[in-house]
Structure formats: C-alpha cells, structure tokens
Design brief:
- The protein is α/β, with parallel strands linked by helices.
- Among the domains are: 1-33 and 532-566, no CATH class; 36-158 and 239-281, 2-enoyl-CoA Hydratase, Chain A, domain 1, CATH 3.90.226.10.
- It contains 21 helices and 21 strands.
- The strands form 5 sheets. Strands 10, 13, 14, 15, 16, 18, 19 and 20 form an 8-stranded mixed sheet that branches. It has a 6-stranded parallel sheet with strand order 8-4-3-2-1-9, with helices on both faces. The protein has a 3-stranded antiparallel sheet with strand order 6-17-21, sandwiched between helices.
Length: 585
Amino acid sequence: MWRFLVGLLATVGALVLIAIGGVVALVSSGTFSGKNLPQSIVLSLDLRDVPPETVSGGLWSGGLFSDKRDIVETVQLLRQAADDPRVVGLFVDIGDESAGLARVQELRQAIAHLRGKGKFAIGFAESLGSGGAHFADYYLAAALDQIWLQPSGGFAVAGIAIETPFLKTGLDRLGIQIEGGKRFEYKSAPDTFRETGYTGPARENLQKLLDSLFGQFIADVARDRRLEPDKLRRLIDSVPFEADRAERESLVDKLGYRDDALNEAWRRAKTRQLVTLSEYAADDERPSAQGEVVALVQVSGPIVSGGSHPGPLDSDSMAHAADVTDALDEAAKAKEVRAIVLRIDSPGGTYPAADAIANGVARARAAGKPVIVSMGDVAASGGYLAAIKADAIVAQPTTITGSIGVFGIWPVASELLATLGIRVERLAVGTNAGMYSPFQPPTAAQRAAVARELDHIYAAFARQVGDARKLDGARLDSVARGRVFSGTDAKAVGLIDELGGLQRALDIAKARSGIDESSPVELRRFPGEQDRWERIVDRLLHLGGIDARGPVLRAPREVREALARLGVVARPGNVRLPPLPPLWR
C-alpha cells in the first residue's frame, strides 16, 4: 500500500510539473504574444558561461526548467543566424575564464563564419582574465571585431597553468596505501596518489601540452588583434594592468560600460531589437537545415559499462556504453541517415566500455554508414579508444587526446585502521575473493595478477590503435605509453586525421556519403530528442519505485507530440553512477 501511495503521489506530482512546464514553455516561447521577430535584429549571446558539451536532465542541476543549450546546438544556431538576413549583428557578453578551449574554438569558428557573411560581432566584458591559470575569455573575445572593456575592470590574462596536488606523503602519514599500477611512464593520472611530485616523463609531456596550447592562443590572438606574437607574449607576461593600458596596447578596442557597447551595436545595426539565443531558437522563421540526414551521437563524460538508470535528482554526467551503442545501431538502421557524426568529450573510462563503443562504430560502418568523430575539449584514453574505428577523426587544435595507456588503483587503509584500533576480519570463499579490499593489502600473487591485467589491457589497446591508425613498432611506441597530445600535435603524429570542429566533421561526413558539398544537411540526434518532461516524469516515478517504461504509465504518443508542439524539448544525456574501485582507465 505504501509503495502504491508513493507512486501515486509521484505520478500526480509529475502531471502537475507537466502542466506547469507547458505554461512556462508557452510563455517563454512567445505563444501568447503572437509576435514574430522583427526584420532587423541583433542576436544576443551570453558567454559568461560557455555552453557545456551536453545539458543535464537532472532536477538538482536545473534540468526541470532550464532552457540552456549545449555547444552543438549553440553553434548550429549561430550558423543559421549567419544565413538569416534578419540578423545584422551579434552582441556577446564575455566572462567565462575557464571554459574548455576546444569549445571556445568551436565558438570562434562559428563567429568567424557569421562575420564572413558581413555581420558585425561586438563583445563586452567587465574584466578579462583572472590572473590565474587560463585565457579562455580573452581567446573568445579576440574572435570578435570589437571588444569593449569596462573602465574599472582590468586585463589579467596571464597564460595557462596546471596544478596537481600530490597526496602520497599525506596518505602515508595517515596509513593509507594506494595499490595497483599504470602502463606506462607518461600515464600521469594516478601519480597524484602514488608520487610526491611530477615524474620526469610526466613533466616533459605536460609541459609540451601547455606549450602547444599557449602557442596556439598566441598565434590566433596575434592574428586577430594584428599584433606581433612576441609583443603579445610580453604583454601577457606583464599582467595584470589597468583597462586603459589594454586599450592603448590594442588588446581591446573601446572602454565603456555595457550600455555603451550596446549603443554601438544599435548604431551599427540601425535598430534596437536585441534577441536572445533562446528567443531566436523558438522562432519558426529562422533558416532551418533541410536536406539529407546526418546522425549525431554524443559520448560525454567518463565512459562506463551498461545503460543508464536515472534517479530523479541525478545529473547526466557519464557516457554509458550500452546507450551509445544502441544509438549507433539505431542510426545505422535508419534508412534516411546518410552518415553519422560521433561527438566525443570524455577523459576516459573502463576499457571494456570504450571498446564496446569502438565496436559499435565498426558495426555502423559495416552497415554502410560513414562514421566521423568530432572531438570536444578532451577525448583521451578510453575517449580516444572509442574513436579509433571511425572513417575519420576530427579534433580541434586544442583538444586534449591520446593517453594510450591504462591504470588501475585502489586505496588500502589497513594501517590507519590498526592505528585507530579497528579490526576487520574476513570470511571468504575463493583465493582472490576481496582482492581489491580497502581493509587489507593484496598478496604478492594478487599484485602480480593485477600487473598481468594491466599489461594485457595496454597491449590490446595499443594493438587496436596500431591497426586502426597504421602505426607499428617505434612509431606506435612514440605516441603511446600514456602520452597526451594537443589536437595539433596529435595530427602531426598520426593519431587524428583533420583539425577543426563540428562543421569540419559534417563536411567530411557529406563527402564520404556522397552528399553535395553545397547542400544543407539536417543534423539529427540519436537517440531521438525524447520529451524532456517525459524524462522528468520517468525520474519521479523511479523515485516512487515505479517502472515508467510500463505500458500504463508511459505517456501516449499523442501526449508526447502535443507537448513537443508546445516547445518543451528534451536534450539527451546520460546519468551519473558512482565510481567503483578499482578505477581502470
């Protein structure tokens, strides 16, 4: 009875949320007003928070009422705006100092495309840089044709840094040991637990990565701002300094407040119609991509095995291999789909899960569908493995990729427990039962077994990369052993095929599938964009212990379509699962 009551209350609550959501969607989409967008508008883009790779559907993380858009949708809308004669310019609020550089490059490319169509792009920032470890905000601002900086703000774009805490000494003092190992010397992720500082190989590899990323920033911004690269480096090395010096040195164009920057936009546009990206997305008259269908399948977050089982409060922060492979299979079977773009933004994951995705890519290709990988901020370790069987791999110059290696670690607190007077006894059947226990260290034989497993996974990983990328012997060894690369360096050593973003991947997909290069395509997400509110209902019913996939509680197709017409649209994603020891990557 209690289970029934909880489920009933969850269902009633879900229906109330749907009703509220329908009203919110109607109001926000302008249905009640009946007004179309003006014939001359300035598009407003708030990049004080750069769009994420995917948008969460969790209640805690704002999935209920958020109209936030991911980077793919944002870039697609900007490209549509470039072809829209009503859009005369772009106004950008700048301020995200730590955004992923590959996403920044996606936006830079989209802005450059818009400017190439004769439209202006003006940006405003209260300040630039934090004097800390990143330069994303100014890198983005440099793509605009005019940068406004608030007079009371400053310029503190200091470069880029990596800071790694090393916990070994502290863990030793606590009586906690980290068991496991890594393959090989450049695989630095576990070093934070097992070393007291950067190892020589890790320091060499990470410094090379930083040099590559910063070098790209200097080259691009120097070109954008018409500055000598050496002068720009000297200016960066002399920060922080005041806004008026930033103007004198041509790092920004104008000093003023946001209203001043807006007035400049009005002057250029000869209109005062500012339209947000959300308002523009809801407009039926904007140019839409009609044509052959290219499927978009996303891999976002650490890659884990199985499918997602959402809780109502969970965010969508992991890529579940079964979900991704199902989407690939669905896209491969869809007759209207001409090609597949696999968008990967993942730092790694379990070897079997990443291998399953790579196999799904191979199945899609065997079904006759070209698969092109587009890499986001990071596609490393398992994220790289998932990509290797594609027809082509495209990465941004600042994408972090490679990391062909593996590690497996887990903590053992037996000394700490003994110090605290805590005794743990074990009853087990099987010689290796509980070998990953945090309460007692593994035996010598168990450590040897772990080492064999690491060797086996590394050899299989490296062999797959070698076969896919046609690398062997010394060439393969020179790119493996855990090394990470920028996209630029990854192309130089043969780990990827092309530099560029989503649009470059689409261009390759069109060429591989025989679509004329001048023809527009429809980028269709797989799995299909299930109604966001239905997913919220599913999560609430899950909280009540009810399977929302059952035939009684599943929303009828007519209801789903009606809600979709109201503009209540879901964005697919995956669900957070707790990491389980040992951690293999």
